[in-house]
Amino acid sequence: MSVELSPGQVGMAQLEALYRDGSAFHISGEAMGEVAGAVERLEKAVSKGDALYGVNTGFGKLASVRIADSDLAALQRNIVLSHSAGFGKPLPADVVRLIIALKCISLGRGASAVRPVVIERLQQMVASDVIPLVPEKGSVGASGDLAPLAHVAATLIGEGEAFYKGERMAAGAALQKAGLEPVELQAKEGLALLNGTQVSAALALVGLFDAWSLATNSLVTTALSIDAAMGSSAPFRDEIHTLRGHRGQIDAARIVRDLLEGSEIRESHREDDLRVQDPYCLRCAPQVVGACLDQLRHAGHVLRTEANAVTDNPLVLSDGEVVSGGNFHAEPVGLAADAIALAVSEVGSIAQRRVALLVDPSLSFGLPAFLSADPGLQSGLMIAEVTSAALMSENRALANPRTVDSTPTSANQEDHVSMACHAGRRLIEMNENLSAILGIEAMSAVQGIEFRAPLSTSDALQSVMARVREASPTLDSDRMVDGDISAAAELLASGPLCEGLHEASIGEALG
């Protein structure tokens, strides 16, 4: 089934579904009418004989070079070929599908003056599983994501490489197998396809989707760790958090509080516990993870706006004027991606400290060293904790902002750029690291809770423990645990550990 998209009104839940489900899509008929109207406005402007950037002139520093009317189609083909200069591994197919959807949404606003057939063919490519091969590197995030988007456009005209049903081949052959004809680009269409922030935005969105899910799951691993360490539930009382007022903090405290409800472990040490306060990694989890949820929610608002934006140049305005601007500059996307990176790093940082607490007998209130059944003879989860520290350190380095690293390009015509594409792409690796950190925390916390027997945790957390134990059986003697860590990381990345506690996706969070 094809999902209808209304440019300017596409919601975050729709975008996440497009990414995760790989659904076919089409731009609404009403929007396609606007697309056709923009083409007519452009044709009138061209007929006046004025110099129009990228339509009958060269590009970038070559904007002063006038192009003959007979060469306008060749100009558009040439820009696609010359700008297909990416490098590195191909972006994942699900990311490229989202890139194409975002490009169609932008073109569907009717200010880019591409013919309807361009949008239709992009839609048909996705529906037929023709996925352009897009190298992951080469964009500085202004003038748009030129190199990676050129590789998308190259497949549209039958050049370069693509995947057809997962098999890599020449783009022309992929189109032929799908029964699709290459498009011969007309005035402005090549530039409209290349200009824009869709690659940066898609990568940032993918990072956001996974970061939200993992941050929410980190509250579940937090609750497991609290019971494993026999921590207090007092810091999660609602009034504490409403007195401060931050939405994310209030939500995070409620989730942890609800998860611990009914725990025998918790009830066993309400009285006569000599400890006055728990370490920050337990006690301040709502303040830290809640702030990260608020950060992600803000980034979501920015990226939802960008997903519906017109970001190529020049634009054909409603009065028929063709005007050069700078909507291709991906600064909003880059800053949002940097904000997401900070949140991902912080969620992992506080989770790693909980792992460190659980394996340290001086802090874990009665648990054996390294959660080993026979400390000394066995090392237990000693090096799993070290791995979590290594991943945390990597994420701290990856969280350094990318948008501050501008460098001039194109003979200084494009003298300030956003680096948004790199800012978004690094989120994929950061989320992979975070899933492993949280997986190690889940393994450690479940091991710790099992040492509290015959006392049991809450019903909700017992259900989570069963899922964790499917991925990683009880560590009753030393064994290689790399497979356990991979399986636990996959579990943490696969979706909600516990249903119904919070918005499972950023789409639900934004409404």
Question: How does this structure look, described?
Answer:
- The chain is mainly α and about 500 residues long.
- About 55% of the residues lie in helices and about 5% in strands.
- It is built from 20 helices and nine strands.
- Strand 1 (about 1-5), helix 1 and strand 2 form a beta-alpha-beta unit.
- Helix 9 (about 200-230) packs parallel to helix 15 (about 330-360), helix 9 (about 200-230) runs parallel beside helix 17 and helix 16 packs antiparallel against helix 17.
- The model has no long low-confidence stretch (mean pLDDT about 95).
- Into which percent range does the helicity of residues fall? 55-70%
- Rg of Cα set: 26 Å
Count of strand segments: 9
N- to C-terminal separation?
A: 24 Å
Shape: elongated
- Provide the residue-averaged pLDDT: 94
Extract low-pLDDT stretches. none
Note the total helix count.
20
SSE order, as H and E?
Answer: EHEHHEHHEEHEEHHHHHHHHEEHHHHHH
Largest sheet: 3 strands, antiparallel
Strand residues, percent: 5-15%
Give me the secondary-structure category.
mainly alpha
Strand order of the largest sheet: 4-6-7
